Amino acid sequence: MIEKPNLFSFATTELSQDAFIAWLLAWADTQYASAAPQLHACARELITAFFTKHSNPVPRFTEVNVTRQSKHIDVLCVLEGTYAPW
After folding, report:
1. Residue of 35, 43, 37 lying closest to 79 (CA atoms)
2. Closest alpha carbon to 58 in 49, 67, 68
3. How far is the first Cα of the chain from the last one, in angstroms, to the nearest whole number?
4. pTM for this one?
5. Is the dihedral of CA 72, 76, 82, 86 positive or negative?
6. Core vs surface per residue 31-43: b (16+ CB within 10 A) or e
7. Among 6, 9, 10, 8, which Cα is nearest to 75's?
């Protein structure tokens, strides 16, 4: 069984907006598509909105890597090891 993203693994010391965003973005990875289709679709729509806001084409992606609090970046979402959606 695939271990699903858990909000509390992103927010170990306190619940925050950053933790929620990181948790939601993690659901965009295709490995979670069947685990919670609505969360998966919502996360992919959020990523699409980030690209659209900056007039960038949305790349095709299956892999999503989310990190928090790294090098003064609150939440970093990298698609396919290449694209950051903003």
Report:
1. 43
2. 49
3. 32
4. 0.79
5. negative
6. ebeeeeeebbeeb
7. 10
